[in-house]
Structures are given as C-alpha cells and as structure tokens.
C-alpha cells in the first residue's frame, strides 16, 4: 500500500510539474527604439488565466492608454488553446535608455514574471509612427536581406548572393510582386533554381523570425575594384494582427502594403597578384586538373584521331581559354570542337571543359605532340600553379614517306623541305605561236559605228520605263524602308563575319544585323523591338517556336557579350546560329 501511495504522489507531482511547465507569461513591445514624440505599445500575454496581475512601474513613461484586456479561445486538432493579453500604450518622458521591469501574475497558485525589456528613446523624429498602425507594424516586421558570401573576393572568384525575406512570427505574407530585379553589371552571373519555397526559423538582429529564401545567385567578378550589386525590391501584401477579435475569440488580421528592398551591396574585388604570374596564364581561378590525351597512339596515314585538351575541377570553367595544341606541320589539323560539362551550385562552377582536335597524318613516321602547360590561380594557397601535360608520340605505321626526308620526324613543325626538281618545271614557257593579222580596220560603217548611232534612239523607251519604275519605287516610302533595312542586315552580317575575333565589334555588328532584319521582316520600328513584341509578331507569322527561341537566344547573347569572356569558337557559333535563325524564319514566316 505504501508503494502505491508513493507512486500516486509522484504521479501527481509530475502532472503538476508538466502543467506548470506548459504555462507561459511574456511581454512584447511594438518597438525597442523610438523617438520622444512617438508612442510604444506593450502586451503582457499568458496562455492560461491567472489572478492578481501586477504591471511594472512605468516610471519613465506616461500611460496614455490601457490597460486593454483581450481574451481568445481556439481549437486545433482537438486541442484547446487560450490567450489573454493586457495591453498598454506608453509615451516616453525623456530621452535615454530605460528598462521596463517585470510584470507579475499568479496562475494556479504559482507566481510568474516577465523578462525585463530595454527601450531606447531618441530625439524627436520628423514623422511620428503609431505603434498600433498596420503600416508601421508591417515596416517593423518585414525585412528583405541580401546575404553575400564574401565581400572581398579575388577577380574571377565565385561568390554567392542569397536573398532572404524575414517575417516576424505574428505577421503573415499573402502575396508579393517583384518591382526591381537585381543587376549584376561587371559580373558573370547564374541563378540557382529554387524548386519550392520553404519556411524556416531563424533570427534577425537577435529576434526570432521566420524566413524564406527567394533567390540564390552565383557571381564571378570580371573587374577589380569596387563593384555594386543593384538591389532586389518587392511589393508585399502583409497580414498584421489587430486588437479586434472574431466571435470565436481569434484575433482579426488587417492587410497592409509594404515595399521592401535588399539595398545596394558593394563588393571590393581584389586584383590577382602580378608577382609570379606565368606567361601562359589566361585567367583560370580555382582548383583544376589538366591533361592532354589522344584516341589512338598508332594508325595509318589518312586515318584520323582525336586529340583532347581537357581541364577538370572547380572554378571559373566557362571564363578562360584552354591552351592551344602544338602539332607537327606534317599533320593535318582541323579547328577544335569545344565542349562543356559544367554544373553551377552555391559553391560555383564544377565539371570539365575540353577542346577536341581532329588530326589526320599524311605520311608514315613518328610524330611527337610536345607537352603544353596550363596555369591557374589557386585560391587556397593564393598562388599560381602550373600543370604540364605529358609528351605523346603518334606512330603512323603505313602510308607514303615524306619527300622532305626519309627519317622519322622528331620535332614539332618538321624540318625544312628541300625543293624537288622534275621534268615539268619549265612547262609555263610557251613554245607554240599564234599570229594575228595587222591589216588596218576602219570604224566608219562598221558594226560599232551603226550600234553607236542607233543605241541612243533605242534607249529612250528603256530610260522612260526605268524612270517610271524608279518614281514608283521612290514613292513607296514603306517599301524603301524595308529594303534598306534588309540591305543593312546583310551588310552588318557581313561586317560581323569580318569582325570575328574582335568581341566588341563582332557583337555590335551582329546585333545591328539582327535588328535590321527584324525591321525588314516584321515591318516595325526599332523602338518597338522588345523581346515580347518580337515573339508575338513571329508567332503571328506562323514561325515555329524552335526558330523563335533560337533568334531570341542570339539577341540575348549579344546583350550579355560585353560582360562575358567570349572565345573565337563561341563567336563563330553565334554567327552560324544567327545566319541559321534568319534563314529558318525566312522559310517559315507568312
């Protein structure tokens, strides 16, 4: 019996302790910093009814309202919740830092106290804010923050910008609209896809908040010095609590609109050190491996092999050029095919890039591919590193022997070839003669004489027809504008081809060619050439979505070219895509 009695007593104590542990009594203020001409609201909230509530002495404040009492009951998943709040509105008596002391209440025979709160009162503000205003509550409880992983990176070092929207626990967000998108001038940028927004718990300036990650962007600075990131701005519909209650005791919410901005961020980009910079350095920054490989080591003449120059690792893989392969002159080499297998996450680019050369030997022999070097800046050690490839020997087993020498070729570029004489070396000297008559001829009454006499009379009707057509064509102002734009498109496309290798000149000419082509094809002025307008008009012209997407992609490449390092191969690819897109639209448009 004694054992049962002890068990009952222990159970009663545990239940009582659990019940007490569930009781909360806390104080909340509308703001912790205010001007002397503003008001402060303080709430004392409990989740269980109590007795003998004693507010603190508001010695440094004047009570201008309250206490206001509100009670609410609610049920969720079969569980009952209760809330009781005592609210006061206070006006500060002077400037300084003051402490609102503890409030006390008795609940189920136990005494509970709130935590003291420190309030800072400053000089008068120009526009006093009502602490109970929905707009003010929204401004205090919604914050958009741009978190930058590193504000002092090296040139071409990856940094991330994460945009977070912080919302206080008592406030809700029903909708938002993007007003201004962040601009990343002088950065190579790529957004990281966020499949689904998820609410997480965190802190903002020491206070508990909920937040969602709206956008993640990876940036590679393309210049040194101070670079600015333009802010992201949102128009948000905010749900803020009021003092009113519904018939069930739940607090009613009020909507307010709030514009928030992440603010400009300044990034101080450090120049890569000049000391120790290798001569073959092309801007690679990160951690890389480098190798040169061939698809075959032995083959016959006129067969082909592939020689691949490849860089693997993490860093600015898309923003530097691979070293060129040096091959003997006796090997026929085609322009390399560039390939990229790169993924971008919050740590930056990772993967590999390569140039693949197609090589066709013409003669029998051994051909060495000398080692080449690749240099990069290692961020961990903050120093330059150089990797050398191994020498590769290509053995051509069968085929004609080079006339320059019968020995195996042992050096890139080969030896100088001697001149080989043969029996046909003087074939350019003519040995047959062709004689012509020297008898004088007279112009009078000749065919030329009668032609010169009659042609002016015959030309009169032709001139009249040509003039009539010209007048008609000159009167066609709209048609002339279209024909002029078409000629300009062809001219600029030709200029773009001539400017291959010169990034600025090439993309300016290509952009002008595309816009003049659109003017000629869609019959619109340059001022109307937005991407949305272009797509709408091309759709109306029954152009396929594939052709429209290709054309718009080329326009976007022209816009981004000034901020992105571009190789000769990429320029040639963009030129071919532009010519192909124009040709495809010409075939399809109605």
UniProtKB/TrEMBL annotation:
This is Protein BatD. The keyword Transmembrane applies. Residues 1-21 form the signal peptide. Coiled coil: none annotated. It comes from Bizionia argentinensis JUB59. Keywords: Membrane, Signal, Transmembrane, Transmembrane helix. The chain crosses the membrane at residues 447-466.
């Amino acid at each position: 019996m004694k054992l049962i009695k002890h068990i009952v007593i222990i159970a009663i104590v545990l239940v009582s302790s659990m019940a007490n542990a569930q009781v909360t009594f806390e104080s909340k203020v509308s703001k912790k910093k205010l001007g002397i001409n503003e008001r402060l609201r303080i709430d004392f909230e409990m989740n269980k009814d109590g007795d003998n509530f004693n507010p603190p002495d508001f010695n440094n404040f004047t009570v201008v309202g309250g206490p206001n009492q509100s009670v609410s009951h609610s049920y969720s998943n079969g569980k009952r919740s209760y809330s009781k709040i005592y609210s006061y509105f206070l006006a500060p008596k002077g400037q300084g830092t003051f402490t609102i002391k503890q409030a006390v209440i008795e609940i189920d025979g136990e005494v509970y106290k709130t935590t003291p709160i420190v309030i800072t009162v400053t000089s008068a503000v120009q526009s006093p804010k009502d602490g109970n205003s929905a707009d003010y509550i929204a401004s205090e409880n919604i914050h958009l923050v741009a978190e930058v992983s590193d504000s002092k990176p090296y040139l071409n070092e990856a940094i991330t910008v994460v945009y977070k929207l912080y919302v206080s626990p008592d406030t809700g967000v029903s909708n938002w609209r993007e007003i201004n998108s962040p601009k990343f001038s002088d950065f190579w940028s790529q957004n990281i896809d966020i499949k689904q927004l998820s609410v997480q718990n965190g802190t903002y300036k020491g206070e508990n908040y909920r937040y969602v990650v709206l956008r993640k962007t990876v940036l590679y600075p393309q210049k040194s010095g101070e670079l600015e990131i333009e802010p992201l701005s949102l128009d948000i519909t905010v749900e803020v609590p009021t003092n009113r209650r519904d018939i069930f005791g739940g607090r009613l919410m009020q909507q307010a609109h709030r514009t928030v901005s992440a603010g400009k961020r300044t990034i101080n980009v450090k120049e890569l050190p000049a000391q120790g910079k290798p001569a073959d350095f092309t801007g690679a920054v990160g951690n890389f491996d480098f190798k040169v490989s061939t698809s075959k080591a032995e083959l016959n003449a006129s067969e082909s092999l592939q020689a691949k120059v490849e860089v693997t690792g993490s860093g600015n893989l898309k923003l530097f050029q691979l070293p060129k392969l040096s091959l003997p002159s006796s090997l026929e080499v085609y322009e390399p095919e560039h390939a990229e297998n790169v993924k971008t996450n919050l740590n930056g680019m990772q993967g590999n890039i390569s140039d693949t050369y197609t090589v066709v030997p013409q003669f029998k022999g051994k051909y060495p591919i000398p080692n080449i070097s690749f240099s990069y800046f290692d961020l961990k050690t903050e120093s330059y590193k150089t990797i050398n490839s191994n020498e590769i020997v290509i053995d051509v087993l069968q085929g004609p022997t080079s006339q320059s020498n019968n020995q195996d070729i042992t050096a890139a570029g080969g030896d100088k070839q001697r001149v080989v004489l043969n029996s046909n070396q003087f074939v350019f000297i003519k040995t047959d003669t062709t004689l012509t008559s020297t008898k004088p001829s007279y112009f009078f009454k000749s065919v030329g004489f009668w032609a010169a006499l009659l042609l002016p009379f015959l030309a009169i009707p032709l001139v009249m027809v040509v003039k009539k057509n010209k007048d008609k064509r000159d009167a066609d102002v709209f048609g002339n504008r279209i024909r002029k734009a078409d000629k300009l498109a062809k001219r600029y496309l030709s200029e773009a081809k001539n400017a291959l290798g010169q990034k600025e000149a090439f993309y300016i000419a290509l952009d002008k060619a595309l816009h003049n082509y659109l003017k000629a094809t869609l019959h619109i002025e340059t001022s109307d050439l937005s991407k949305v307008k272009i797509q709408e008009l091309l759709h109306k012209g029954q152009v396929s979505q594939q052709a429209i997407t290709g054309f718009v992609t080329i326009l976007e490449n022209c816009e981004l070219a000034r901020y992105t390092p571009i190789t000769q191969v990429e320029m040639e690819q963009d030129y071919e895509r532009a010519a192909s897109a124009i040709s495809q639209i010409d075939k399809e448009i109605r």
